[in-house]
Amino acid sequence: MSEFRLAFPACVVAGKHRLTAEDIVLLRKHSFPEGIRTSDDVVAMLALNNSCPEKCADWNAFFVEQLAGFIVHYTYPQGSLDEINVAWIMRMFTTDGVVNSALELELILHVMEISADVPVELRALALDQLRLAITDNIGGYKLSRAIDRRGISRQDVDYAMRIFRSVAEGGIIPVSSVEYGVLQQIEQATLSGANHPHWAGIMAAVELRAYAEPRRSRWLRIVDEEPVSEAAVA
What we know:
Strand order of the largest sheet: 1-2
Protein name: DUF3800 domain-containing protein
Organism: Rhizobium beringeri
Strand content: 5-15%
Structural class: mainly alpha
Number of strands: 6
Helix content: 55-70%
Shape: globular
């Protein structure tokens, strides 16, 4: 059992029903004066997020900004992602491939946006949240989707382009076989006549490429330490 305990004022904030803007000011000043920099800071953030049923918009921005910054800039490889980061993200924020909340999905998307390199597995995971919203009516993206229907909406098009924007160039969207497989599942689950016209443009721009990304390993692991996992499920 984890011996981790929240320090003041985080322990007091964690006991509240709703996180307010004033609580965020307290946390910034006393609990995280330098931002999220250590595994214990990550544990505290996840515990706060899980303990308070209601959160203000300031908390959502703080949670996404701080955790994404830590994952990308304060763990190896700094400024980028590797398979260990991605495995931790999947373990912490998904259940059987489903991102658990709209806030955690926003965190994943922001991690992708600020990282210099994003493994294809993470892009495929994010894209699959659109497929899950359409076919199974579940997941963090479904919770934020304005129109609950099986066709592709403008919101869905914007979501897909948010995932592919960093790799799209010259009218081409290069994808791996796993990403292409998700796109094909989305195509099969929707009727072309019911889809936003820009979706056809995305599919026309897709170019399947063979990716042979080097498998990297490292001795030092930061974000995937066992105490972080324990706090998330506590």
